[in-house]
Give the backbone structure.
Amino acid sequence: PASRVLRWDGGKSEVVFGVGLPSNHFIGIEDYGGEMLVVVHHGWTASKIFSGPLNRPEEWKLVYDCGTRCFPVGAVGGEVFIVTYEGRGFGSVIAVGGGRKRVVVPESVGEPIQNAFMIGGDIYVEYLEICSSTLKVFGVDGALKAVVQFPERSSVREVSYNSEYAALIVDTFKGSSLF
């Protein structure tokens, strides 16, 4: 099976994205203030990212295809921010837009990126360091703004966020807590 994106209008559904995708392709979709970021994963090995206006899926265009796993983080100022596992496979954050690609957060060997998201124009990157999660906050220019150290060895299990706030479920050997 393969995913499809449908639009419901007036009680009728219409496939607006994913027609022709073969088996083992899965679609993830996020709305970033009217800009849709759509990721098409081919199993666990490769991804492509598309972007376009929410109400005009016919205008969604391919913005990144690296041949390895990647996922969108957000969109700001005409750039799409993406975690990609090109290179040595630990993950980096790049920005693509206007025909350019730039590295925002370089790969950190030995500290793989587990997750990333954007709040208020900042990029929050969760790393796995010595079997424990660390959250680092970067500006869109790549400048490190903050490091969030959890009180003890912890693992971030779930992240829920919007443009202003994030809620993290953090597990420790003593239990789970909302952070």
User: Anything to note?
Assistant: The longest strand covers residues 25-32. The chain has a mean pLDDT of 89. Residues 50 and 62 are 4 Å apart (CA to CA).
